[in-house]
Amino acid sequence: MEEIEVTARYDENGRPVPSIFLWNSQSFLVDSLGRRWEDEAGQHLLVLVPGGQTFELLLASEDGHWYLKPVSHDHPWA
Fold it and tell me: What predicted TM-score, i.e. pTM, was given to this entire model?
């Protein structure tokens, strides 16, 4: 898991809605949000970027920072 920079707004329910994230010195525009869930680690969001790549972003409950998690294609939602 790697810490990243994310530009996000919050919806009317207080949930984060990322629009851009920076990873490996490259900016990624978020085309759409997929599944989201929450667990002890924080809020997880699947995001789709131009070109069809899927990323999992995590807003960690412990430190409030954003992290990029590798997406495993073994999950039914991947």
Answer: 0.85
